[in-house]
């Protein structure tokens, strides 16, 4: 069974890795464990990400998210994972002035993103005409009853939680491995949203995280070496398709409810929390380099960003030594 899951030992220190598809992306799991625990830990990883997909996948009619969207306007009991993610979504709606906005499902459908990306004919997608709509700031908050574990979505509004679920699932499984299974060294990566940890402070045992060139995915601009970190990358270049309105992508600007048109095509954010990293990488892509990084530096102290703009320039915002090995065009040091 282990071989069918593509499990390999990647060094002589009892460290193992595997990869599999889930949540419409590749999941990569690396960890240090005794040999007799490996198969069980990998099965737990696959089961966890498959469970998350079943709960939050908007393309599955029987997912909890689809049920919740069909029930907009009615009070619904929800699972603990759904309640937790919705609480985080509300937190980051406020923290980003609603630039992170979960009520973008209709906008994605109107842009043509109406089925799982690997099924799209990216050269030509049927779409509906974009409609004028209220700005995201006018959208009401989700009514959450924590004690009752119930949710009331505003009638007529529907959720897409793809902008937060990957990093949340990575964070939750890493927490389980660390705190319940006592895995001292590990890395979990879900399509560029990752967390790495290591109880050892020895520099020789640090994790190495490659930073991809957005215009040449086979090339790395450099490598970050660190024991404990979280990283997330958002991009308008990866999931693109064409419809009658022209080129489209999956990052919706809630101020227009259309794919964003800022100067930023990719952003990598590094910090301690993968959810925070994912939210801010998307926010910077939507707001653009200057406005987005100003908000990041003001509201997420300690987080750093590598921003790639449409003129093929790269800009680093931060103060750590981590990025010295990464090839960037401009460095904006922060205090």
Kindly describe this structure:
This is FAD:protein FMN transferase. Keywords: FAD, Flavoprotein, Magnesium, Metal-binding, Transferase. Belongs to the ApbE family. This protein has seven helices and 19 strands. The strands form five sheets. Strands 1-2-3-7-8-11-16-17-18-19 form a ten-stranded mixed sheet, covered by helices on one side. It has a three-stranded antiparallel sheet with strand order 4-6-5, with helices on one face. Strands 9-10 form a two-stranded antiparallel ribbon. Mean pLDDT is 86; it is low at 1-5, 117-123 and 133-137. It has 335 residues and is an alpha+beta fold. The radius of gyration is 20 Å and the shape is globular.
* Structural class designation: alpha+beta
* Amino-to-carboxy terminus distance: 51 Å
Portion in helices = 25-40%
Q: Given the C-alpha coordinates, what overall shape results?
A: globular
Please state the average pLDDT score.
Answer: 86
């Amino acid at each position: 069974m282990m071989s069918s899951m593509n499990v390999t030992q990647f060094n002589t220190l009892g460290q193992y890795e595997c990869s599999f598809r889930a949540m419409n992306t590749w999941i990569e799991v690396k960890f240090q464990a005794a040999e007799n625990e490996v198969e069980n830990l990998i099965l737990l990883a696959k089961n966890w990400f498959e469970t998350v997909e079943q709960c939050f996948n908007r393309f599955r009619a029987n997912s909890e998210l689809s049920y919740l969207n069909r029930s907009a306007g009615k009070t619904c009991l929800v699972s603990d994972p759904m309640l937790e993610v919705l609480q985080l979504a509300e937190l980051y709606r406020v923290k980003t002035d609603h630039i992170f906005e979960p009520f973008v499902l209709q906008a994605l459908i109107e842009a043509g993103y109406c089925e799982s990306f690997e099924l799209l004919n990216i050269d030509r997608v049927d779409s509906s005409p974009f409609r004028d709509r209220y700005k995201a700031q006018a959208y009401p908050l989700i009514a959450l009853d924590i004690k009752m574990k119930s949710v009331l979505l505003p009638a007529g509004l529907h959720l897409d939680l793809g902008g937060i679920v990957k990093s949340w699932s990575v964070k939750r499984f890493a927490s389980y491995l660390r705190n319940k299974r006592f895995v001292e060294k590990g890395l979990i990566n879900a399509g560029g949203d990752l967390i790495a940890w290591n109880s050892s402070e020895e520099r020789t045992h640090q994790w190495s995280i490659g930073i991809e060139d957005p215009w040449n995915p086979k090339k790395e601009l450099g490598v970050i070496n660190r024991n404990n970190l979280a990283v997330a990358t958002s991009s308008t270049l990866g999931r693109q398709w064409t419809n009658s309105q022209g080129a489209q992508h999956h990052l919706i600007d809630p101020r227009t409810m259309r794919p964003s048109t800022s100067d930023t095509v990719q952003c990598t954010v590094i910090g301690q929390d993968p959810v925070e990293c994912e939210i801010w990488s998307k926010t910077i892509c939507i707001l653009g380099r200057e406005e987005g990084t100003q908000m990041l530096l003001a509201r997420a102290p300690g987080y750093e960003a590598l921003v790639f703009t449409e003129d093929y320039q790269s800009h680093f915002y931060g103060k750590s030594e981590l990025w010295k090995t990464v090839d960037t065009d401009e460095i904006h040091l922060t205090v």
